[in-house]
Amino acid sequence: MIEDSHPLTVTESPGLVRVQLGRLSRGEGGSLQEAADDLIRRLLLLVIAFRSSGFTPSCELPPDLETMNFLYELGEIAAAGGDIRARVFG
């Protein structure tokens, strides 16, 4: 897991579990497994967009290098055919 800036939290309400990775992404489902799967799916979509379009930081706001490195690392794992779950939840 990416340590301080994107803590992993789990919240539950009747019929809904939410797994949140800081402000980066979240997953929702009827069970913890479904919410985790949704989070991974959403992260992979984010990583694919990040890798395909690149990223141009704003002059007014410095880039979050820790997040960019994390997304790059997830992209490398996925591109090699690996499972990003261990990196996200490990």
Residue-averaged pLDDT: 88
Order of helices and strands: EEEHHH
Radius of gyration: 14 Å
Shape: globular
Please mark out the parts with pLDDT under 50 across 5 or more consecutive residues, or reply none.
Answer: none
The main sheet comes to: 3 strands, antiparallel
Percent range for β-strand residues: 15-25%
In terms of quaternary structure, the protein is single chain
Widest β-sheet, arrangement of strands: 1-2-3
Q: Decide which structural class fits the backbone.
A: alpha+beta
Helix count? 3
Q: Quick one: how many beta strands?
A: 3
Number of domains: 1
Helix content: 40-55%
Brief overview:
The chain is of the alpha+beta class. It has helices at 32-53, 65-79, 85-89; strands at residues 8-13, 16-21, 25-29.
Secondary structure elements and pairings:
Layout: E1 8-13, E2 16-21, E3 25-29, H1 32-53, H2 65-79, H3 85-89
Antiparallel strand pairs: 1-2, 2-3
Helix pairs in contact: 1-2
How would you describe this protein?
A hairpin with a 3-residue loop joins strand 2 (16-21) and strand 3 (25-29). This protein has one domain (8-89). Helices cover 47% and strands 19% of the residues. The chain contains three helices and three strands. The protein is an alpha+beta fold. Helix 1 packs across helix 2. It has a three-stranded antiparallel beta sheet with strand order 1-2-3. The mean pLDDT is 88. It has helices at 32-53, 65-79, 85-89, and strands at 8-13, 16-21, 25-29.
Please supply descriptive tags for the structure shown above.
90 residues, 3-stranded antiparallel sheet, 3 helices
